[in-house]
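agent: user wants the structure for Serine-threonine kinase receptor-associated protein from Goodea atripinnis. delegating to structure tool.
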Amino acid sequence: VTNVWYSVNGERLGTYNGHTGAVWCVDCDWDTKNVLTGSADNSCRLWDCETGKQLALLNTNSAVRTCGFDFSGNIIMFSTDKQMGYQCFLNFFDLRDPQQIDDNNPYLSIPCSEHKITSAVWGPLGEFVIAGHENGEINQFSAKSGDILKKAKEHTRQINDIQSSVDLTMVITASKDNTSKLFDSNSLDHIKTFRTERPVNSAAISPTMDHVVMGGGQEAMEVTTTSTRIGKFEARFFHATYEEEFGRVKGHFGPINCVAFHPDGKRYTLTVAVSPHWVFSFAVIVIDSS
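agent: tool returned. relaying tokens verbatim.
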């Protein structure tokens, strides 16, 4: 079940009921009108943000790992897992064409047969999607032709998360190779590297400061035999320019799976998606980082 919360005081407003499996990804459009969710129940669903009504159901052959609206809110993308004999696909639907939704027929479907997509975000102007793969590679997929526009291979292991800067000019990655890296969105040029001693599950760029926050820790399967000190379960802050760590926030007893900054830049949260007014999450921890 996906929950929606007020980001100001943590009050829960309601739920979006319909999925029967774990929800792997959540996104809301720019005006917080619609919500998109992808699940292990082999479906991607579109919801009315305010009422919780399901607007569209897109069935897939495998779990939906990533999803997102382009900046206009008219085009959605989602990727499916490589499992149960099915390969990974990156699908694009135009919400302005009801026939695509009714027929469950994307206007573009890109097969990713070699290495599945593990994270993805839209690039500037909605011209392409930046996708991270299980082999550490980053690809730009054209939202019109499906061609790979650019590639980058700076990570040595799986990319767990990709998030954009507020102006969409940069993206930050989080990887199992114990690093987080900053890239130019258009050129995929590698800009900065932030190093840790444990796998990084998620990283985010501050919308107001030259800061990044990272979360991760020891692999979940090993947590039961590890103390919080050794497991490195802190949220870690780095300066985006100097690559230096300047702060940590403790408190978690297991790996941090996702981090995001509040749009005002003064708070961050363990969350799935953040809009200017609402937080979409299973469990929310908001901490003043000022």
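agent: one observation worth passing along. Residues 281-285 have pLDDT under 50 and may be disordered.
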